[in-house]
Amino acid sequence: MGQDFDISNYLKAMREIWRTVGWDDRLGCHYERLTADRRPLLMGRRRGLVQARQLYCYAVAIEIGDDSDDRNMADALFEVLAGRYRADHGAWVFALDDDGAVVDAKIDFYLHAFLIFAFAHYHRATGAPAALDFAWDILDRVLPRLAAPAGGWHTALDADARPMHGPLLQNPHMHLLEACLALNEVMPHAKVRDTVDTIISLFEDKLFDPKGGNLAEYFDNHWQRDRAQGQRLEPGHQVEWSWLLERVASCFDKPQLTAIADELFQFGLEHGQDLQRGGLYDEVDASGQVLVAGKRIWPQTEFVKICARRYIRTGSAADQQRLQTGMALLQQHYFCNDGSWREHLSADFNQQLVTDLPGSTPYHIQMGLLEVELSGGFSPATQSGVIC
Hints:
mainly alpha
């Protein structure tokens, strides 16, 4: 990256890594992770989530028209999700082992939200009718199984379809909302809008704290903040929700959400950001006290994504400057000159806390960078970059 940063070239190089060393021809799916020196890291599981996120990446690449190999990769990912990962009861299993056998049969809400998202993008890119059938089947048949008594959806069901122990989570609800945005673009339907309305009502009534201008991660079965973990807030999710609410406000005619999006963004700026060194922390509490000082890459990509979306709406110099600053930070500390990245850094950026490359991360990188590109608010500048 000794020259101006080119978003398209970086994304091509990233996808090439996962199309080659990241791909397991034997099982017809991606490895869960790669090592720091770009070798497959066998983890004993292959989550469907990784395959769904990668399907999104290659489906969008087809639309961009970057490489004919992207179509082959997307088709292969769709085939493995439609085959190996789908159980006889109609839902999708959570993970296979490294030999392709089911190792975790739970019905996971987070996974199914991403399946809707990926199938919608694959249909938009290829026109495959089966992709829409799957997305609709999840919305119409799988999600009702996961419904929680107090609203929203359980985090997961075990193999016997019983709710699994643990807190209710905001995160899969956020990604179901994201999936509905994608599905609405290819299949506008009252059921999609009703699902959006359900999530937004839950967000406004339970997830979002209007006094603090933030949302928590963990809740009890009555949607009260979990006593043990409810104080833990993720700055990356504050800005990710802000981006989603901006989109929902315009796509579903809910202008009141823009003000809440602004509040979440402001919380991320004031309480989640390292004002001296830059970047969003992993976890803080409602007062801004840092609970986990590391800095994963995905909150930083979510930050530039919301700055880009805000710049599209506001055209303000402040939002463009934040976008420029966020991109400079990513170039200086995270993006590698071969299309890979540094996954998790210490607060001062001097130590790698995680050296592996998770197969789930390209989704965050591609979505963030494509939003930056769409905004027209990023002016590339020569940056030394990271040699990995």
